[in-house]
Amino acid sequence: MSAAAHHSPNPPILNSFASKDELAIHLAEFVVKAQKESIDKKGRFTIAISGGSLPNMLKGLIPNPAVKWDKWQVFYVDERAVPLDHPDSNHHACTTALFSKVPIPKENIHPLDPTLLDDLEELSDSYEKELIKEFAQRDSARFPVFDLILLGMGPDGHTASLFPGHELLAEDDRWVAYLQDSPKPPPKRITFTFPVINHAARVAFVAAGAEKIDVLPDVLDKPELGLPAARVRPTFPGQLYWFVDDAASAKVNLARTPFRL
Ligand SMILES: O=C(O)[C@H](O)[C@@H](O)[C@H](O)[C@H](O)COP(=O)(O)O
Predict the structure, then answer these.
(1) Could you give the 3-state DSSP secondary structure of residue 176?
(2) Pocket of ligand 1 (CB under 6 A)
(3) What is the domain partition of the chain in residue ranges?
(4) What integer is the mean pLDDT of 95-107?
(5) Rounded CA gap, 258 and 45, in Å?
(6) Dihedrals φ, ψ of 45, to 5°?
């Protein structure tokens, strides 16, 4: 196998569902399968979750006897620099939508350190240290390998808190970075960088609703636009998945995108 081929990522696996409810059912099945494989192999399941509409798309995990919550280690792909009980907090959204309804040990969930909200450099450094604790020492693990990273995608093609044209798109050393000018409010956030996202074993986008109808074909079929979501290309053998609904995929040429599940 040529070197180029060796590093070429697998083609994305895309499934489009008739409704958000049907998408949520299949997404839960996918998460349960990923956690089983990870736990069977390593005795734990490392997952990173995005904010926005994603937390409510995980309702298929409530209740779900197949989920071994005590084996989960949960991080946030990005987080707003607000208190943990603030309505803008992704931790607050995930706790309300999911973690308050399932038996996951509190110590298995890794929110940002709310005592550092006034110093974004410290805040992102401290979150990176949380990752280093979970994924061995930085010198041995160049980048953490999450078992699963769940991403959303904005109508502008952003993902995590990585926005079109932003300098953070070029960050290739730090695991966690910060920004103060997020075009999507609130402005102050921390976020995983592309190396972390692209080293995951599995990355799954969840994109639903008509507001994604124009950006989805651009992200799937026009990599030359360089949209942030199109820069998510997991390093081999990582696999990229798309869970979309028919409203979002109406303009996608599904015959072109090789997909299976
Ligand atoms: O903290 C955030 O704002 C999210 O992580 C963000 O990246 C989200 O995933 C996209 O904006 C899509 O949001 P929707 O799924 O709500 O459209």
Answers:
(1) strand
(2) 50-54, 77-78, 90, 152-154, 159-160, 184
(3) 16-227
(4) 98
(5) 28
(6) -135, 115
Tokens of 22: 């049907």
Check: CB of residue 126 under 8 Å from CB of residue 112. Answer: yes
Q: Decide if 127 contacts 135 (C-beta within 8 A).
A: no
Locus of tokens 């932003």: 166
Please say if the pLDDT value at position 258 is more than 60.
Answer: no
Q: Whole-angstrom Cα distance, residue 177 to residue 117? A: 14
Pick from 17-31, 46-60, 142-156, 242-256: least confident = 242-256
Q: Where are the alpha helices (DSSP H) in the chain?
A: 3-7, 20-42, 90-97, 120-134, 194-198, 215-221, 246-249
Pick the CATH number of 16-227 from 3.40.50.150, 3.40.50.1360, 3.80.30.20, 3.40.50.620: 3.40.50.1360
CA–centroid distance, 152 to ligand 1, in Å, is 5
ipTM score of the complex?
Answer: 0.98
If you search the block for the tokens 């959303």, which residue do you land on?
152
CB 56 within 8 A of CB 208: no
The structure tokens listed for 11 are 């083609």
- Calculate the alpha carbon distances from 33 to 38, 58, 133, 166 in Å: 9, 14, 25, 35
| pLDDT, tens digit (0-9, with 9 covering 90-100), for 198-238 | 999 999 999 999 999 999 999 999 999 999 999 999 999 99
User: How far apart are the CA of 51 and the centre of ligand 1, in A?
Assistant: 5
With CA atoms as reference, report the closest residue to 261 among 240, 230, 245.
Answer: 240
